[in-house]
Amino acid sequence: MKNLYKLNNINLNYQLNGNDIKVLKNINFEIKKNERVAIIGESGSGKTSLLMLMSGLEEPTTGSILFNNEDFSKISEKKKTEIRKKKIGLVFQQFYLIPNYTALENVMFPMQINNINDEKNKANLILSDIGLGHRKNNLPSELSGGEQQRVAIARAISFNPEIILADEPTGNLDKKNTELVSNLLLDYSYKKKFSLILVTHNMKLTKKCDRVIELLDGHIKV
Ligand SMILES: Nc1ncnc2c1ncn2[C@@H]1O[C@H](COP(=O)(O)OP(=O)(O)OP(=O)(O)O)[C@@H](O)[C@H]1O
Ligand SMILES: [Mg+2]
Questions:
Q1: Which atom number of ligand 1 is nearest to the Cα of residue 45?
Q2: What is the position in ligand 1's atom list of the atom closest to the CA of 52?
Q3: Which of 190, 169, 197, 168 is nearest to 53 (CA)?
Q4: Bridge partner residues of 91 (DSSP)
């Protein structure tokens, strides 16, 4: 299978009051097309930072990130934005839904900017799959944390990206919805053939992935 991502010797440092904080240390791995990888590790081990690098929203201090053989450090911001728009579905710990758009409109939005047709029906379908058909006309502020999280997941799936980067996508959900949403994400990844990076503390979920990467204090634990 072809590589979707290749991370080479990634280091990420933050400067804080003149001190270097080493957040990620010598990270190397590849993600294949249509591969499902769980990322686990304690709070503060660098999981979110790693996803920020993989989305191209942050740059590593040293090392390179190749996405479909293109080096993020060698392409323009415009091109990176274009790649994110078309190919990378993001589910952040904070959901970043558009506040004045309803759930349905939030899910339709990435399809509209990608010129995908029949977006309303497709958004309706995903929202009912995810158990939110009855909340589709609500604004994010009218939804619970778990419901907003599910809208963010529906939005990430909606436009057929090549990969979904999901940061604790079931972190706010109860047991029933954790099961529902994680199975849905995994099922869709097979059906639509996208790769999936799942940051999670849920061991049941890691078992359903093809592979697990464990971060320990910014290193990959081997
Ligand atoms: N902008 C920043 N400036 C300085 N330090 C930062 C910054 N962002 C993150 N860090 C530090 O980097 C480390 C890793 O943070 P990160 O958010 O990646 O952890 P995480 O594994 O996602 O944790 P959690 O499970 O709590 O979400 C932490 O020690 C954090 O304090
Ligand atoms: Mg995090």
A1: 21
A2: 18
A3: 197
A4: 166
- 41 CA from centroid of ligand 1 (Å): 12
Spatial CA neighbour of 157 closest among 135, 137, 127: 127
State which of 11, 21, 170 you would mutate to test the pocket of ligand 1, scoring each by most atoms of that ligand within 8 A of its C-beta: 21
Neighbours of 160 (CB within 10 A): 17
70 strand-pairing partners: 67
With a Cβ cut-off of 6 Å, ligand 1 is lined by 14, 16, 21, 23, 41, 43-49
Beta strands in the chain (DSSP E): 3-16, 19-32, 36-40, 62-67, 70-71, 88-91, 163-167, 195-199, 211-216, 219-220
| Segment-wise mean pLDDT, segments of 10 residues, the chain, 222 residues | 93 92 97 96 96 96 97 96 96 92 98 97 96 97 93 95 95 87 90 95 92 96 87
Looking at residue 192, its amino acid is K
Ligand minimally distant from the alpha carbon of residue 23:
1
Identify whether the C-beta of residue 156 lies closer than 8 Å to the C-beta of residue 90.
Answer: yes
- Whether the Cβ atoms of residue 139 and residue 101 lie closer than 8 Å to each other: yes
User: How wide is the angle at C-alpha 197 spanned by C-alphas 195 and 201, nearest 5°?
Assistant: 145
Token pair for 167: 């940061």
Task: Identify the CATH number of the domain defined by range 3-220.
Answer: 3.40.50.300
Q: Global pTM?
A: 0.94
Q: How far does the centroid of ligand 1 lie from the alpha carbon of residue 60, in Å?
A: 14
